[in-house]
Specification:
Elements: E1 12-13, H1 15-27, H2 32-51, E2 56-60, H3 64-78, E3 83-87, H4 94-102, E4 106-108, E5 116-122, H5 134-145, E6 147-153, E7 176-180, E8 183-184, E9 198-202, E10 214-215, E11 235-239, H6 244-256, E12 261-265, E13 277-279, H7 283-287, E14 292-297, H8 305-316, E15 321-323, H9 326-330, E16 343-345, H10 349-358, H11 367-378, E17 381-384, E18 389-392, E19 398-401, H12 413-426, H13 431-449, H14 455-460, H15 462-467
Parallel strand pairs: 1-8, 2-3, 2-5, 3-4, 5-6, 6-7, 7-9, 10-19, 11-12, 11-14, 12-13, 14-15, 15-16, 16-17
Antiparallel strand pairs: 17-18, 18-19
Helix pairs in contact: 2-3, 2-4, 3-4, 6-12, 12-13
C-alpha cells in the first residue's frame, strides 16, 4: 500500500543537515534534553492513539533515539497506559541518561520474554551507518514478531537515513513510522520506504534549511481564466512513432492534466479517440507552429534512423520539452546544446543508467544523488521514476514523491506520467513545478483507479486527479 503522508514540515533533510538544524536550536537556547522531550512527547501522542489502552513495549537503544523512547514510555505511563521498556543497553549520552532517570516504569532485560499489542522501535535512529549487531537483529525481530502492531521512531532500526538502504536482511516491517523534526530521504527511497507503513511527523521547531529537498505535495491548480480558449490554455505537440499506442496513452493523459489542446503527430488515426487531434503532415510543419507551448517525444518513438530524425526535430522546437522512453536511449549531449526551453527527462532505472553513461555521470550515491548529478550534467530536469520517484533540477532543487500504488507496475503507466508532466508544461508551469505536478497527478490517478488497472484506465482517472487540485 502507498504511504499516507501528513506533512507538518515540508523539508527532507540529510543526517548532516538535521544535526546542523538541531545545533542551531541548541545555540539559540534549547538543549538536547529539551529537544528530546519535545520529540518524545509528540511521538507519544501517536503511540497513545495507536495503543488505545493496549499494552505497549518500547525498545530503547543506548543513544538519543533510546532516550526518546524513555520519554515516550513515561508519557504513556503517566496517562495510565500499560508500558514496558526493554533496554538494549545502558544509556550512553547525557540526555538519554536523564530521560532514563525520569522514567518510573518497568524496565526489563533484552532476554526477557514479553508479548504485547504495540511495539515501538527506539533502538537506533537516523545516524546509523553500519549494520546492526547480530544480537540486536535477533532482539528486534523477536519483539516485532511478539506484538500485533509495530511502530518505528524516526526510522526503523537498521536503515541508512540518507540512502534508504537496509543494512541487515530480514528486518521487520512497520505499520507506521514517526519522523522527528523533518522528513529523511529514507522515508521516500526504496528499499527502506517499503518497510515503514504510514508516515507521521513530530515537529521540534527546526527552521527552514536552505537547499533542502522537499516532498512532492498536492499542487494548487486554478481553473482556466474566464476568457480562456484552447490555445491560451496551452498547445502540446506529441510526437508519435513506430508504436503509436504509447503516444496515444500519453496524449489522453495530457488531455486530462490541464492543457487546452493536445495534437498528436502520427502516421495513422487508427484506434485514436475521436476528441484527439491527429496531424499526419510533416513533423517539421507541426513543430514550427508558434502556438505550441510544449512538446513530448519518446513514447512509442522507436530507435531507428527515422526516430532519431523525429527526436532532433522535436528538440529543435524552442518550447519546453518532455523526453521519455525510446527518446532517452537516443538522446545525446549535442541534441541539447541549442535548447532554450526547459527540458524534462523521465527515465526509469534502466534509462537512468543509460543517461548516466551518455552524460558522463558515475552513477554513485543514492537515487537522489544520481538524479541531481544527471540533472546538473545534462542541464535537464530529471524525473527518476519507479517504486520511488525523485525529481531533480540543474539548479539543485530536489523533490521526492511519497510512494504511490504498486499497481502502477504495469506497461504503459510511464507514458501516462509523461503525458501528465508535458501537459503541465504546456499549461505554463515552470519546468520543475510541472514535473512535480505531473508526478502528483499520476500518483493520485492511480489511487483513484484502485487495484488492477490498465494504463488506459489510469489515463482516464487523470481528470479526476486534476479536479482534486482545484
Amino acid at each position: 500500500m502507498p504511504h499516507r503522508l501528513l506533512p507538518h514540515n515540508d523539508q527532507i533533510l540529510t543526517v548532516a543537515q538535521m544535526r546542523a538544524a538541531e545545533d542551531a536550536l541548541i545555540a539559540a537556547g534549547s538543549s538536547v534534553s529539551a529537544l528530546m522531550r519535545i520529540a518524545g512527547l509528540g511521538a507519544a501522542e501517536w503511540v497513545w492513539r495507536v495503543s488505545a489502552g493496549r499494552a505497549v513495549t518500547v525498545l530503547c537503544g543506548p543513544g538519543n533515539n533510546g532516550g526518546d523512547g524513555y520519554v515516550i514510555a513515561e508519557a504513556i505511563r503517566e496517562r495510565g497506559g500499560q508500558v514496558t521498556v526493554v533496554a538494549a543497553g545502558d544509556p550512553k549520552t547525557d540526555a538519554a541518561r536523564e530521560a532514563r532517570a525520569l522514567y518510573h516504569g518497568a524496565v526489563v532485560e533484552p532476554d526477557t520474554e514479553i508479548h504485547g499489542d504495540v511495539f515501538v522501535d527506539c533502538l537506533f535512529g537516523s545516524g546509523l551507518t553500519r549494520p546492526l549487531a547480530a544480537e540486536h537483529v535477533a532482539l528486534l525481530t523477536r519483539l516485532a514478531q511478539a506484538h500485533h502492531h509495530r511502530l518505528a521512531l524516526d526510522l526503523p532500526s537498521g536503515v541508512q537515513s540518507d540512502t534508504g538502504m537496509i543494512l541487515n536482511p530480514g528486518l521487520p516491517h512497520y505499520d507506521a513510522t514517526i519522523a522527528l523534526g523533518a522528513w529523511k530521504f529514507a522515508h521516500f527511497l526504496m528499499p527502506a520506504a517499503a518497510t515503514m507503513g504510514t508516515l507521521r511527523q513530530v515537529p521540534i521547531g527546526v527552521a527552514a534549511v536552505e537547499g533542502a529537498a522537499v516532498p512532492v505535495a498536492k499542487p494548487r491548480i486554478g481553473a482556466p481564466a474566464v476568457d480562456a480558449h484552447k490555445y491560451r490554455r496551452g498547445l502540446l505537440a506529441v510526437v508519435g512513432g513506430a508504436m503509436p499506442g504509447a503516444a496515444v496513452l500519453a496524449s489522453v493523459a495530457a488531455q486530462g492534466a490541464g492543457a487546452g489542446y493536445v495534437k498528436l503527430f502520427a502516421d495513422s488515426k487508427r484506434n485514436v479517440p475521436a476528441d484527439l487531434v491527429v496531424d499526419q503532415g510533416k513533423l517539421f510543419d507541426v513543430l514550427v507552429d508558434d502556438r505550441n507551448t510544449a512538446v513530448l517525444v519518446g513514447p512509442g518513438l522507436g530507435r531507428d534512423s527515422l526516430a532519431r530524425e523525429r527526436l532532433a526535430i522535436a528538440l529543435a522546437d524552442p518550447v519546453p520539452a518532455v523526453i521519455d522512453a525510446d527518446a532517452l536511449v537516443l538522446l545525446g549531449p549535442r541534441l541539447l546544446t541549442e535548447r532554450k526551453g526547459a527540458t524534462v527527462a523521465t527515465p526509469h532505472e534502466g534509462e537512468l543508467v543509460t543517461l548516466e553513461r551518455t552524460f558522463g555521470c558515475d552513477g554513485g550515491g543514492s537515487k537522489a544523488d544520481r538524479a541531481l548529478a544527471l540533472a546538473k550534467s545534462a542541464g535537464m530536469i530529471v524525473v527518476a521514476k519507479g517504486p520511488d520517484t525523485v525529481i531533480a533540477a540543474p539548479d539543485g532543487r530536489v523533490a521526492c514523491a511519497p510512494r504511490a500504488s504498486s499497481w502502477l507496475s504495469t506497461a504503459g503507466t510511464g507514458d501516462v506520467l509523461a503525458g501528465c508532466v508535458a501537459s503541465r508544461l504546456a499549461a505554463g508551469a515552470e519546468g520543475f513545478a510541472a514535473a512535480c505536478e505531473g508526478v502528483w497527478l499520476h500518483g493520485e490517478a492511480a489511487r483513484r483507479a484502485g487495484p488492477a488497472f490498465t494504463a488506459g484506465q489510469l489515463g482516464q482517472m487523470v481528470p479526476a486527479a486534476l479536479a482534486a487540485c482545484l
